Amino acid sequence: MPVRSRHERGYGSKWVALRAKVLMRDGYLCVPCLKEGRPTPATEVDHITPKMKGGLDTLENTQSICSECHHAKTVRDTYNRNQVRFDTFGDPVWVPYNATQRKEIR
Ligand SMILES: [Zn+2]
Hints:
The chain has 106 residues and is of the alpha+beta class. It contains 3 helices and 4 strands. The protein has helices at 13-25, 31-35, 67-80; strands at residues 44-47, 62-65, 84-86, 92-94.
């Protein structure tokens, strides 16, 4: 698989500009945390609808987010992609993204 640059993945200078706007709009606070009534500094900008599901780089589809919420959301999105396996005890086993590109060894 060829290594793709940040730009090719859609994180070019446009994204940088949008990111700054989103953080400013949200007052540099994590939107999901704020909804729970706990203001937390935002460190990242998240796509509400993930790009891989057709989410756009717009102000409407982005929110400021802290790394903890971002991680939790990524895990949730990972669930949706069926990249979580369950072991014999029914506990989730996180499958790294790249591992799903390979054939599963049984
Ligand atoms: Zn948060």
